[in-house]
Amino acid sequence: MQRVVVTGMGAVAPVGQSVGSVFTQLVNARSGIRPVPEHLYPASASMVAGLVDFDAAAHWPAHLASQFDRSVQFALVAARQALSDASLALNEEESHRAGVYWGTGLGGATAIEESYRMLHKENGRVRPTTVVLGMSNAAAGHVSIQYGLRGPVLNVSTACSSSAAGIGEAYRAIRSGYADVIVAGGSEALVTYGNLRAWDAMRALARPDPADPGRSCKPFSANRTGIVLGEGAAALILESAERAEHRGARILAEVVGYGNAADASHISRPDADGQVRAMRAALADAKLAPSDIGYVNAHGTATLLGDVVETEAIKRVFGDDARRVAVSSTKALHGHLLGATGALEMVAAICALDQGVIPPTAHLDCPDPACDLDYVPNEARRAKLDAVMSNSFGFGGMNAVLVARRYRH
Amino acid sequence: MNTLDTIKELAAKQFGREPHAIDETAPVDTLGIDSLGFLEFLFELEDKFGISIPQESVAGVKTLRELATVIDGLIASKATTPA
């Protein structure tokens, strides 16, 4: 069995367009959530989201940028950052052992919505590139094409746990010897009129905070009102420890555990039972006890039910340690990036491990008696961490939990 | 502007090249235009000229000059077709 380490990371998020800026914003509790502009959502006064202020022209000339859906643009930039961070150079032979495992919920949501808008409302025509722009594996395809990664490739779509599951499956593939390097992560860009309407129809979205839109997402707080959608991408370079050591790479963390379990109970209602089994599976895989985990990056979407269910699940898994372990939801600041959220939050958890700073749960002003763990409210905390956990729970009852620890030779 | 010039101008824009670098006698695949890019290009031309370009009409087309001839034909037949 190979050990698997992280040697590079990249992120494009509402709170910044590099790992350094993202983590600084999270630690300083600066929100990337803002009102949705009118061109995306007419009568936007009632809608907020975590939006990336992304300038595609800074990355590609117009004729190339138009070949990628917005989510794929995020993916390509995050992957490029991660590859550069890892100082990874692959020759032809090595490229056959290098893959892409990528998570996304909807894939090319912007391309598909624009296509249907033209078809139904404009001129009844559909662009020839609609299929390849919209398909959910376009990001994985373009990352492999752009960087010549010829090994195993997999697109994972398990709603809000997509990229966590993608990272977990990549970890297993390297551990079992199917690849030496995998670009693992996820991307999402579905803040479109149609999707906002759909999420709103489900009554899942947070009411905008009237005083400060940036404070609309309030995980674990008694005054929370729901999810704030976000967009972005994050990428991690997973590599066999043997290869990373051989080339003298800087090692940020070791991925040691992955748990994947289904609720098998309801298509949207979260269930502590599945979450508990996913967390326990990840700990067992890591051969760690709950007492070894110093920080849990919670799924913490700020729905009324979800935060209580996750709190209960953490209590069941951690037992007496539940009161001790630091738990935070960074979604208060970046929103819910859906298919990309697991990867972004794993990046945050690894930064916490690496730098010894736990990002807070922002906007936690009104304690909820049903959410009674240490959520690191409002202010970051210094902590010597040896192992961290990241929870991602998706619609469909799909739970993926990752555990990373400090690397020791 | 004649049809060929319009095509060259659109091709330059869509494929990120200078208009003078577009050789209307060269096979389109040597202009850095792949099959999918060519389909997108046809889509733009249909919009621009207000015509429909059937697949069979461009099946043998190798160059932008040949494409211009096809499009002129389609425009002419549209003009003579009773409404």
How would you characterize the overall build of this protein?
The complex is a heterodimer of chains A (409) and B (83). Helix content of chain A is 34%, strand content 19%. With 409 residues, chain A is of the alpha/beta class. Chain A has 2 domains: 4-246, Thiolase/Chalcone synthase (Peroxisomal Thiolase, Chain A, domain 1, 3-Layer(aba) Sandwich), CATH 3.40.47; 257-405, 3-Layer(aba) Sandwich (Peroxisomal Thiolase, Chain A, domain 1). Chain A has a 10-stranded mixed sheet, sandwiched between helices. In chain A, α12 links the parallel β9 and β10. Chain A is globular. The two termini of chain A are 15 Å apart. The mean pLDDT of chain A is 97. Chain B is 58% helix and 0% strand. Chain B is globular and about 40 Å long. Chain B has 83 residues and is mainly α. In chain B, α1 packs across α4. Chain B is built from 4 helices and no strands. At the A-B interface, α2 of A face α2 of B.
